[in-house]
Amino acid sequence: MAADTQNRASCRLQGRQIGYARVSTDEQATQAQEMELRSAGCDEIVQEQGSGASRTRPALSKLLREIGTGDTLVVVRLDRLARSVSHLLEVIEDLTARNAHFRSLRDPIDTTTPQGMFSLQVLGAVAQLERALISERTKAGIRAARAKGKLPGNPGVRERRPEALAKMTAAQKAAYGARIQATVNQWLPTVRRMRPDHTWDDIARVLKQRGLDWTPERLRRAVKWMVAEHLADASLLRKSPPRLPEDRLMTLVAGMHSSNPDLTLREIAGQLERLHERTPRGGSKWSPSSVKNLMDRARRSGLIGGDVTNTPTED
């Protein structure tokens, strides 16, 4: 036991202890949670007011984006953080990807210890079983309804009742927001770096080179949602200035190089041809020299680093 306590303490000394305190209404206060979190060693505490069922947690989203390697997110109870077991597992998966940890003071969850990880695995198995049981019950209910000649689904939605449609719309918006926040760290930094100087088409192309499947329309919609939820600056939505065709090609080539600096000039030319991009002179065949000219312009414009030693070779 003493060795386990020592290992846990040494693991936490590597990073910060960051507390997260949430209440549901304005009438409630976070003081009791803050006292408990500070007693547990949290020097920094993030506060939030919002319903436990709400998927919109701006303070939590910001905390998960900024938490560093070795840091530990601490809550008093699991219900202060997560809406469900699946949400809890999503949060911990996000923390794990950042080499950060999670700890609940009143629950046996502490990802810095073997016992805590075991408890987490049990929760994951329970969540998987719960999803399977819900799926089976849903299928059985549909079969029973059809056997009685009834249509499956929500009668209120089928009959276009306003209250049912409003609930369905709210649920769809909440699900959309959850999907956006789950991947925001993959694409938002690029958007912040390039907007509003570059068009949505330019940014979508750069993200595609990094393996992210975004269309300009979906990307703009996602940023609009982030701005509406006060998770991103409204300046990202400003209209971009008109750009010459060569400027767009310059941005595209810079994005290819940034996503994979090991690509040669000829390999970048090949990718441009596969994307059916026309050369600045309108041709369909790209030469390494044309790619190099665009990269030189991108370097002078600050789109890529100015180190000439980092310039791709021809082959």
TrEMBL record:
> Do you know which PROSITE patterns this protein is assigned to?
RECOMBINASES_1 (PS00397), RECOMBINASES_2 (PS00398), RECOMBINASES_3 (PS51736)
* Phosphoprotein listed as a keyword: no
Q: Which InterPro entries match?
A: Recombinase_CS (IPR006118), Resolv_N (IPR006119), Resolvase-like_N_sf (IPR036162), SSR_resolvase (IPR050639)
UniProt xrefs under CDD domains: SR_ResInv
Q: Which residues form the active site?
A: S24
Keywords, ordered alphabetically: DNA integration, DNA invertase, DNA recombination, DNA-binding
Pfam families to which the protein is assigned, alphabetical: Resolvase
Q: List residues of the Resolvase/invertase-type recombinase catalytic domain.
A: 16-149
* Single annotated GO MF: DNA binding
Q: Superkingdom, according to UniProt?
A: Bacteria
Does the entry feature the keyword DNA-binding, yes or no? yes
Q: Which GO terms describe its biological process?
A: DNA integration
The family classification in the record reads:
Belongs to the site-specific recombinase resolvase family.
Protein name in the entry: DNA invertase
